[in-house]
Amino acid sequence: MVLLEIGIAVIVVIVVAIIVMFNGFVSKRNRVQDAWSQIDVQLKRRYDLIPNLVETVRGYMKYEQGVLTKITALRSSIVSGSVQDKAQANNQITQALKTIFAVAENYPQLKASESYQNLQNQLAETEDKIAFMRTSYNDYVLDFNNAIQTFPGNVLAGMFHFSRFDFFQTPEQERGAVKVNLTDTDTPGVSFGTSGQPQQPPQTPKQPKK
Question: Which residues lie closer than 8 Å to 100 by C-beta, 6 or more apart?
């Protein structure tokens, strides 16, 4: 009788432990998904702002077609890609926008434009929110992944098909600045590199007057 009671008690403890662990997985997964949804909202907000920025600066700067194609492709990744696709596109768009803003410093009329200033502020605010939310998201992902990959959680996770989440980060090879070449229509021969600063072509030495 005593052995039976001990056996029942052990079974009850195991069942309770499984229920608690399962509920913990669900709770951690929900936190990850909620954090991701907040990031996604900001990514889509920036997705909507970028065309307005391009149209605003188009009258002041002449863009190479490749730049517009690049940004369009990156915007598509932000909306429809996987977490890793969106992370890479996010990093590249951030670098491209920094370059555009740096180039805009050379256009006083553009800098004074209320529409440009408003878009710049909105995009900067959105970028700050993405960076902040990314930290929270990655913390939740780490917590969830640890829970389902360590014993005995990994046993239960396998039984109920809980799978790991990807971190919202950029692979090392994608962390370099994106090359965005912009040409100033008023200053032939001047191009802008990844720093966004004018890069003058080599000057031809002046020939001495005869």
Answer: 53, 57, 180, 182, 196
What 3-state class would DSSP assign to 191?
A: strand
CB atoms within 10 A of CB 41: 13
Provide the 8-state DSSP code for 188: T
Q: Which residues contact 77 (CB under 8 A, 6 or more apart)?
A: 85, 86, 88, 89
Whether domain 9-162 has CATH 1.20.1440.20: yes
Q: What is the pTM of this model?
A: 0.74
pLDDT in tens, 49-86: 988 888 888 777 765 455 666 777 777 778 777 888 88
Using alpha carbons, list the distances in angstroms from residue 139 to 90, 129, 131, 146, 151: 19, 16, 13, 11, 20
Helix (H, G, I), strand (E, B), or coil: what is residue 183? strand
Nearest to 182 by CA among 61, 94, 50, 73: 61
Q: Residue 208's pLDDT is what? A: 43
